[in-house]
Amino acid sequence: MAILVTGGAGYIGSHTVLILLKYGIEVVILDNLCNASHKIINRLEKITNKKLIFIENNIVNRICLKNLFKKYDISTVMHFAALKSINDSLHQPLLYYSNNVTGTIILLEEMLSANIRNFIFSSSATVYGIDSPIPYCETNSIGHTTNPYSTSKLMIEFIIRDFVKVNPSFKAVALRYFNPVGAHESGELGENSTGVPNNLLPYIAQVALGRLKKLNIFGNNYNTPDGTAQRDYLHVIDLAEGHLNVLNHLPKIKGYKVYNFGSGKIFSVLEVIKIFEKISGKKILFEYKPRREGDLPSFWADTSLAKNELGWQAKRDIYTMIRDMWNWYIKNPNGLN
Ligand code: NAD
Ligand code: UDP
Fold it and tell me: Is 149 a catalytic residue?
């Protein structure tokens, strides 16, 4: 039996593949490389000393899915494949809905016809929307999202919930990730972003590497201790390991479940800069800019459900996240593209 990992060449997917392989679990990767490089597959093979099954194709391709499900004995699908830029989604909503939402519907339909019943979905803390009380708890209502990317995740959660209701033999878990950062400690795997990054830590790394002149801090008048926004950062390896906990817990799960995957701790933009400077020895120039549209002042995860039910909690602190991320950038200053 193997796990199908859609988006397995991407940032979180590739780290999860690494953890699954480490624990002797067979993996088939499906990725169209729209935001990844084939070199990640080579790196995974190098680190694990294993030959990987990699299919370069699109999740919306039914024929590909049918053949894949016929050829390989798949027990579970871990569904990471998605477009993920909030900013791009504001300009290309249809692309985001078609890739993320239609892609997931096709995947679920083909799983159903191939009798594959276990589904683990990469959702996002952004489904809590702008009105949710903090810390975010899985029982909070979801909605009031601020961009098509987050709305695509929200729609998919509703689709999975409704689908599982009428297919009771199906088990599905939606994992609401907070802010994944960091890289594998080897420096062989990391976030292989192209172009100007949207996220804070990849942007800081580009400034440290001298590729970008300075960081724009979006907002210094939030109602937070230093005026800059706070986020719940989570090491990508902790996140990857969490998927293994979910996999092991699947036999006990009935129907549809949702878990927060965060650390439960928050750091402001200024705090992150200070820690990065300490670890890298680089000075990060920054300038205050107006708030970024749709950004929230502060949110973090209530992590008790994942801890109590899955026995999972984040172990690696912000220093480890930033150290591992910086190690990845030093070893791969040009990325893998
Ligand atoms: P990523 O872009 O690095 O990985 C996604 C992978 O999916 C890429 O390799 C891309 O080539 C592939 N892909 C996209 N559309 C595809 C399609 N139609 N068919 C086949 N492959 C396709 O992103 P990531 O950071 O690894 O995110 C993984 C998942 O986690 C995504 O669903 C994302 O929305 C979710 N998520 C990410 C974050 C984050 O901050 N990184 C936070 C919350 C949720
Ligand atoms: N941020 C910033 N400058 C940047 C990128 C991000 O000030 O160039 C801030 C952003 O406003 C947010 C925090 O850093 O408060 C984390 O942003 P990121 O995009 O990494 O995560 P998200 O906003 O999706 O939680």
Answer: yes
